[in-house]
Amino acid sequence: MAPLVIAHRGASGYLPEHTLPAKALAHGQGADYLEQDVVATRDGALLVFHDLYLDALTDVREQFPGRARPDGRHYCIDFDLAEIRRLRVRERRDPATGEPRFPGRFPAAAGAFGIVTLEEELAFVQALNRSTGRVAGIYPEIKEPAWHRRHGIDPGARLIETLAAFGYTRPSDPVFVQCFDPDELRRLRQELGVPLRLVQLVEADGPPLDAAVLAQLAETVDAIGADLRLLLGSEQATTGLAGAAREAGLQVHAWTVRADQLPPGCASLDVLLERLCRDLRVDGIFTDFPDRVRAYCDRLA
Ligand code: CA
What we know:
Blueprint: E1 4-7, H1 20-28, E2 33-40, E3 46-48, H2 60-63, H3 81-84, H4 118-132, E4 137-142, H5 145-150, H6 155-165, E5 176-179, H7 182-191, E6 197-202, H8 211-218, E7 223-227, H9 228-232, H10 241-247, E8 251-257, H11 269-279, E9 284-287, H12 290-300
Parallel strand pairs: 1-2, 1-9, 2-4, 5-6, 6-7, 7-8, 8-9
Antiparallel strand pairs: 2-3
Helix pairs in contact: 1-4
């Protein structure tokens, strides 16, 4: 079966990440799921935004001089929503040099984009589902839950409340909730009784994922969301993680497929997708280029 196409921060290969145009494009390109990273403001609003700080993606330094922490960064949680709404979102840059992270993508000076709240984005996705007659699911990630709680906000509980308000309450609803923090996922499942599908994110420099660890994860979550490097291994051989996870009863979703940043050993996007789909048989693919992955998956089907 062809894997799910998960638009990583929207169609972010073409438009600035997590803007509504990037989500609309991903929806139109046939993504099965649209990703939301979730961070909080000082006054408790949930934003769809990837970083804890605003510097790499907005004009916060020009608009709010003197509001950085000692590390030089402007944190979302130090700003109220009304202030966040004044910011202009641009294509991702290196905050130190100002150089674009992906030089071939949407020009930083073009367009006028803003940060949206989770509520605004969910309303937008549901409106698109209605107007197009095609349902795209949502795939929110709770960013740094323990850090947020130290700042007085419980983003996991707030996220679940918001999802419920938009009708996402059952395991069969088109939603996956993802997090790197296994304690947070256990808390959602066991203490808060969340029935939605949960995804444990795993990264290349994390603890080893042997059969016992995967079996334990499977008691809480439905899938792992794994860094490509964890799955692909070397050019000659895959790591075995995808098979071991499947054996434990977990789905495998891979991140992140980028046409303009291929992993070592993959000479083309098709080679990468072939390894993921045919060799590893992953269940989902996070991608900045939903149209390209959709086209491959449609050929596969
Ligand atoms: Ca994410």
